[in-house]
Amino acid sequence: MEFFERSGLVAIGSRTRLLSERLLRDAREINLLYGSDLKPRWFPVFYLLLQDGACVVKDLAASTGQSHPAVVKVVGELVKAGLVERKPHPTDGRSSLISLTAKGQ
Q1: What's the pTM?
Q2: CB of 78 within 8 A of CB of 104?
Q3: C-alpha dist (Å) from residue 18 to 12, 15, 43, 58, 74
Q4: What is the pLDDT of residue 35?
Q5: pLDDT averages per 10-residue partition of the chain, 105 residues
Q6: Which of 1, 27, 47, 100 could staple 40 via S-S, CB 3.0–4.6 A?
Q7: CB 73 within 8 A of CB 39
Q8: Residue 77 near residue 87, CB atoms below 8 Å
């Protein structure tokens, strides 16, 4: 931590990043302690699907304030974990409908 004492406010971005990483790690450990394998970065998308039902990535991104590519990545991870599924949108061939699986429920 000597680096931060020497560099002062100039290193605020680096210090904030370390703090953020620590908070995410602690949140992950708390989730695991309570038997949940849900990663903290998945929570906003997962929660919206749980509360609002099936949704398209564009709407998930807008609601969470995350970028479209970030939400696509989270959805991909949630699909791999078996918590959500992608289905073709019934009226828009360009979009997929994202919904929770039985495991996700």
Answers
A1: 0.78
A2: yes
A3: 10, 5, 20, 30, 22
A4: 86
A5: 68 85 92 89 95 95 95 97 93 90 93
A6: 27
A7: no
A8: no
